[in-house]
Amino acid sequence: MILPPYEPPPPYVPPGQRLDHPDYIGNVKDFLPRRVTMVRNQTSEALGFNIRGGKEHFCGIYVSKVMPNSEANNLGVKEADQILSVNNLDFKDIEHSEAVKILKMNTVIEMELLYFPYGYNKTYEKNRLMSANSQSSR
């Protein structure tokens, strides 16, 4: 198994700059795991959100877009939420295609979510690094 390279933590925001700093979120409750339950009438109905990431990308599954006025939006699902589990199935080490399959095959979807913008932003950095590496090897 190949481990991804070490990633340093996000930059420290000094206490005196936190109130006005755009990267500082002072409400710890925003970062606690939470559960939401979505109910669809049919599996063919839209989920109301998109995902990105997965085991093959060395990261978890993250919500990448939430459709306005969708049930997901009304339940508080937001971009950068990491999906920790769906119907008690662990999503922390799952391939993207398997996650999509599980989400789409259920009409009742109980998700455990964790707002984790740092990990979500890393999904974009990994894609840039992978595309840069593939272009430099040509």
TrEMBL record:
Membrane-spanning parts: none
Domain PDZ positions: 35-104
Gene3D superfamilies: 2.30.42.10
Family matches, as SUPFAM superfamilies: PDZ domain-like (SSF50156)
Protein name: PDZ domain-containing protein
Pfam families per UniProt: PDZ
PROSITE patterns: PDZ (PS50106)
